[in-house]
Structures are given as C-alpha cells and as structure tokens.
Amino acid sequence: MMRLALCYLVLLGSGYVISTYGPNQRAQMTGDILLGGLFPIHFGISSKDENLAARPESTKCVRFNFRGFRWLQAMVFAIEEINNSSTLLPNITLGYRIFDTCNTVSKALEATLSFVAQNKIDSLNLDEFCNCTDHIPATIAVVGAAGSAVSTAVANLLSLFYIPQISYASSSRLLSNRNQYKSFMRTIPTDEYQATAMADIIEYFEWNWVIAVASDDDYGRPGIEKFEKEMEERDICIHLNELISQYFGDHEIKALVDRIENSTAKVIVVFASGPDTEPLIKEMVRRNITDRIWIASEAWASSSLIAKPEYLDVVAGTIGFVLKAGNIPGFREFLQQVQPKRDGHNEFIREFWEETFNCYLEDSPRLHESENGSDSFRPLCTGEEDITSVETPYLDHTHLRISYNVYVAVYSIAQALQDILSCTPGHGLFANNSCADIKKMEAWQVLKQLRHLNYTNNMGEKVHFGENADMEANYTIINWHRSAEDGSVVFREVGYYHMHARRGAKLLIDNTKIMWNGYSSEVPFSNCSDDCEPGTRKGIIDSMPTCCFECTECSDGEYSNHKDASICTKCPNNSWSNGNHTFCFLKEIEFLAWSEPFGIALAICAVLGVLLTAFVMGVFVKFHNTPVVKASNRELSYVLLFSLICCFSSSLIFIGEPQDWSCRLRQPAFGISFVLCISCILVKTNRVLLVFEAKIPTSVHRKWWGLNLQFLLVFLCTFVQVMICVVWLYNAPPSSYRNHDIDEIIFITCHEGSVMALGFLIGYTCLLAAICFFFAFKSRKLPENFTEAKFITFSMLIFFIVWISFIPAYFSTYGKFVSAVEVIAILASSYGMLACIFFNKVYIILFKPCRNTIEEVRCSTAAHAFKVAAKATLKHSTTLRKKSNSIGGSTASTPSSSISLKTNSNDGDSASGSHRPRVSFGSGTVMLSLSFEESRRGSLM
Predict the structure, then answer these.
(1) Which CATH number is 191-325+473-513's, of 3.40.50.300, 3.10.180.10, 3.20.20.70, 3.40.50.2300?
(2) pTM for this predicted structure
(3) Could you tell me which residues come within 8 angstroms of residue 416 by beta carbon, excluding any fewer than 6 positions away?
(4) What does the alpha-carbon distance between residue 341 and residue 338 come to, in Å, rounded to a whole number?
(5) Transmembrane stretches, by residue range (predicted)?
(6) Distance of CA 763 to the CA centre of its chain
C-alpha cells in the first residue's frame, strides 16, 4: 500500500508540474521522445509597473509574429514528416513541447525551466516504485531560441544540465564559446561573418562616413563591435555609434533621431532585430527623414514589422543581408492546411487565426477582453475561413530561410537519434565504446551524439556540430523596392556574399538592380568630405577623423591618377609629374651633346685650336733652320705644340653622352696634356734663365743645356701627373652618372669618383704653372726675340685666371654645364698659351722675315750683355766706394775694373767687315763674337 501511495503522489505531482509549470499557452504533442521548442510567437510583452500590492501576474505577450508562427510550423512539419518516415527512426514517435518566448529573456527562461523540471522528475526513475505508463518523457533536446540575447540566457541554463540546444536564428559570435555554452549549437552562421560582409559592401560603394546602430543586447553589441574593427581596417569612419531597444522611452528615441538627423552621414548600419528597430523607424517616418540609406542585418532585413508600405518613404532602397534560402518540399501545402478546429494540439493557431482575419473565435479569452473594453471590437469568425485569401507573412514561403534552419535543426536531432538507434555495441561513443539505449536515453547522450554528427541534408549541405563548427556564411543581398501594383515592399535579390570564396570574389552585386531610396539608380554620397580629384590627395584636418580631410595638391614629382587618393605616388626617377599632377612623363635627358648649339660651338673652338696648333707646328717644321725657330729650342717647341694639340683634343672628350670609358679618360687626358705643356715651357724658361744669368759658363751649365736632360725633366714632371691619374683610376675610378635631382631633366654627367684626386690633378698642374710663371717673370728682360718671356708670363697669368675662376664655377654649376665650364677652361688656357708663346714667332717668320736673321738675334743678345755688364760694373763700383769710405775715409775713388772695347783690326777682319769686341769684367774677359751688317755698324757704334 505504501508503494502504491508513493506512486500516486509522484504521478500527481508530475502531472501538476507539466500542466501548470511554464507558460500556459503552448503547442504540445506526446511521443516516445520529446523535443522542446522556443519560438517568438509575439514580438514583446506589455510593459506595466508592478507595485507588488497584490500577487504578480504573468506578463502578457503582445503583437503577434506571423513569421515566428511559421517557424513553429516548420518544426511541427519536420516532426510529422519524420514520424511518417519508414527509414528515419522507425517505430519511434517524436513529440514536442513548444513555448512562446515573446522575444524576451524572462519568458524564454520561464519555458526553459519547464524543460529542466521535467528532466529532473524523469531522473527520479519512477519505475522502481510503480508502473508509470502515462508519464511524459523528458525533453532530450531544444530547438531555439531566435534572438541571440534570449538564446544566451537559455544556453546558460540548459548547459547546467547538458541538454542540447540547436538555435535556428541566434548568430551572436559570443555563443561560439564552447567553454561557456557547452550544449549550444546552431544552424545559422555567426555575426562575425555578417559584420565583415557589411564592411565589405560599404567599402564596395566607397562610403567612408556612416552611422552604426545596434540593439542593446548580446546580439547587437558583439556584432557592432566586430563591425567597428572591420571598418578600422578599411579606414572607414563611424560618425555615430548608438544603441537602441524596443523598450526605450520616447525621449530616448527622439534624442537618437536628433543625432541622426544632424549627422552628415547618409548611411545607417543597423545591427538589431525588427522589434528593436521599429521605434527608430517610426520616429524617422514621423519626421519624414527620407535621405538615408539603411544597411540591414539579417535579423530585420526581411522583418514584417519594418517592411510596411507606410514606412517605405524612409526605408525604400534598404540593402539587407538574408540567409541563403532553402527548400522544404510539401511545406507550402502544410501551411495552407492549418485550421483552429483541426489542430487542437497547437494553442497558438487560435490566436493566429484571429490576427489573420481580424476576428474572434467562439470561446476565445480575447473575446471577453474585448467586451470589457480592453481591445478594439472584432467580429466573430467560424475557423473555416480560406487562409489563402489573405496576404500574410505566414504564407510567404518563397524564400524559406529561418524556417529552413528550423527544419535542419529538427532533422539533425532525428539523425543523431538514428545514429544512437543503429549503434553497434563496441563502436559507440560512450564508455568502453558502448551504445546508448534509446528507450532510456538521457539528454547528455544526445548531446554527445550531436557533437559527432556529420551528415548531408536534402539540400546537399554538410551538417556537423563539432568544435568551432559554424555554418558556412553565404548571404543573399536584397534591396527593398516598392511594388508598382499595390505599393507593398518587394525584396529584390541584387547580389550574393560568399565568405569562403577567394579574395575579390566574395561580394557579387548587380548595381543595375538597385533602386536607392526607391527611385534613384545613382549611388548616394556618404563621405565626410568631397572626393579629391586626380592630382590631389587627402590632407589631415586637426581634431577631425581621418575620413574628414581637405584636398591638397600633390607636390612636384608626385601624382595621383584616381579620385580620393590617400597619398600621392612619387614618380619614378626617370619621370616627372605634369602640371596637373595626374600622371608622370619621362624626363628629358640632357648632356653636353654634339648636336646642340653650345656643344657645336665648343667643338668648333676645339677643332680650330687643333688646326691652329698644327698650322704653327707646320710653320716651325718648314722654317726649322731659321734663327727664330732655333733660338726658341725647336725640339721642346715641337713637344709643346704636340701637347697643345692634346690639350685641345682632350676637350672633345667632354662633349657627347658620358660613358664610363669617357669619364675615366677625360680628366687624365686633360691633366697629363697640360702638365706636358707646362713642363716644356718650364724647362725652356729655366734653361734660358740659367744660361743668361750665369757669369761664367761651367760644365754644369753645359749639362743643363743638353737636350736629353731637358726631355728627362719634362718626362719626370709628366710622370708625376701620370702616377696621380693611375692611383685615382685604381682606387676611385670616375663613372657615368644620371643625376635625377633636377625636376624635369635627367643630366647624364660623370661622377668623378674622388674630388680629392681631381684636386690633386689640377693642383699639381697649377703648381707647375706657378713655378713656370716665376721663372718667366724672372726672365722677362731677356732678349725678346729669343724667349718671348713677357708673353710666357702673360700666358701663365691667363692660365691662373682661367683655373682660379674654374674652381668656383665648377662647384656652383650642375648638369651639362659642369662639362661645359671645364671645356671652356681648357680651351681658354690652351688658346692663351698658343697665342702668347707662338703667334708672335709665327708673325715674325711669315710676315717679318727681316727680323728672322742671325744678326738680329746676336744684336739682341749683345744688347742684353751690355746691359748686364753695365749693371754689374756699376754695382761693383758702388760696393768698393762704400768699402773705401768706411776704411780710409778718403773721398777719392779707384776704379778696380774697367770696360774696354778694343778693336783689333787685321786684314782678315777688315776683309770680312766684322769686329770682335771684348768686354772686360774685372778679373776676366769674355769674348763675344758678333757679326753686324755694314748698314748697322754706324748705329751700333
């Protein structure tokens, strides 16, 4: 008796719990295995203040959700289809208990507690006490819920008892955390992919100034957070970032719309559900703000709450992301067969019928509320009306997305149960590879089986719920159009988004199908600043986001060839930007060319110098036995003229496009040629100076007069320059160099390799020139017909003036003018030496042959000897006079030397008509043999 009494109490308690615990309104059907369901049959709950003066009553759900009811019907349809199947779960009947979440956490938790309570009662193992054949089995899995915030709360509770939960519409990325939500699974992609897709479409339309609005829950906040990160990576700015909720007060909604209306951003990205978005849209409609473009997340992209004709002035042209549609064979007919009288197990049908036909059924509790004045008057209906005669979102079966996810979720649970049913001992998933008993199966065993589920559904899609197993993110992009027939909202497919496609092929959009704001085909502008035209770049504005900028013209040498360029691209080294800075053109290449007038002029001057020098050499060769040529040391003159030809010729190497070989040749050629030239002048001048200033010719002087020693000195002086060039070319050889520093021109020049080496080369040349100048200046009073000392002095002065001026000119010029300056210096100094040293002699040879005689030379030499002797005698007499005065004090002077000119005439001398004057110098006598013509004798005496 005690055992029977206990069994009776337990059954009574269980029946009480099942019938009274949880929401009163439900859809319920018994079976061998029971599935739970959570669907938003209503959009929300009525808000009223609870003062707790009396026992609180259950919150009332308001605003019937036709789409939510269709989702519920998809679950019922799938279960009935499985029960009628002979291959899937044969001899096993699935039942269901489906509750309305009213799109709120509180209602969802109320329903979830009924699932948990039933499971706890079932775990009491009543078979030990009685034969409980009428007790309802535990809920082994739950399909739902819809909203991410609701699913998060439900998942926290179901995870405690390891009851598997498969959501069909909860896309929050937070729910992917398996450590926190151990029993949660879903048949919808995560919002992480959707946020990336939204950022991609904004980048596609080249917007950079947007407003972000998100629901204040676990769906909106994580989604918009991911969206912000994606926007930062793309350098797109969010002007406003706002949170909304369907429970916001009027003042909060108005303040939010104020900020949106005052914003210059025209694109509004809304990451929220339909109920949360509706208050915002209503206020926008009231203010008639129609110049905004809406980007809708999947949660409201096709919501019947927003897609109303009265809202189209505001939301027309909305770009929305919806899930890929699926196919449920026979579902359309099932939806049309619904009737309140026939479907008694589904209590939601009665309200659906009343909302669809705007009527009340007999015995409806809402009829009494209407009579009490709590609702508007509605007529009675029979329950047999034709459901196909009305327009309702419930029958919108053309694009089954969430309904298809529900269908897949139910079939996934059935497939897991089938795997348990067909499990072979020794190949199971449980301890010792055992199998679960489907008759005594518990929720955690179903969860284990679901985690290892891997099958292909009727759409050919693979379904699995392993670790980090999120559904493939494929979205259809829709555009809200206004129907031309009745003004209703038409969802036009305009593109697709495939997250796992290759880069560049993820987003596909047909721009021709998009109608912006319901009437325009032109893409709206939503940028903080106007696009910068080609040739400009975006410049930063202080205290403003990076998307707000001012257009700054590109600098010279930079360009931008597209609009809204962030930076200007630097032209290549061989190019320069045009006047508008929109493209680069090739720079003009310049060098001291043979074809340009300046190069032609310099080349003519150099060739003319070579010809003149060759002419002088020809004159000297032809008249090589004349006194003027002999007196000028003709051998050294030949070498000097040859070196001048080399000097003139070396200047030609500086003309033309510089090559490596020409760069390495031109400076050594110039330096060696000039040193050879100046060495010859130096040796000539020094030799004559030694001869004429020597009082007594000695053997040393005769050695200096030797031709071999003269050539040796010339060779030694030139060899030093040759060694400088060899060291230079070995350590730092010059090379051709393209100078890109000038804006629109590339100068091809020679990089000298070592400026110090060039300084040594020129410095050594100038040193020899300075020594030569010293000797020439010292010998300026020697017989002019013999050495042209004054002209050598002038030539050296010209040389110094030219090369002293060359140094600052060389370092202050650039490009081809560097070569031109050096050519001019070479030519000027070469012409100076040629003219000063040789033109006077050539003039005498060609035009004054009367002066090109031995007598003229001797006369000049004798005159110079007399002058030197007279100066020497006078100097010597002055010295003796001072000495005698200092010793004896006598005023008398005794000449110690005398100059006597004695003429010893004899027959031979008289016959020859010549005299041999003798010049006495104190202690010695130097005999100078001079010949004079008869006509000059009188004048000489």
Answers:
(1) 3.40.50.2300
(2) 0.63
(3) 446, 449, 450, 453
(4) 9
(5) 598-624, 636-656, 668-690, 711-730, 755-777, 789-811, 817-839
(6) 50
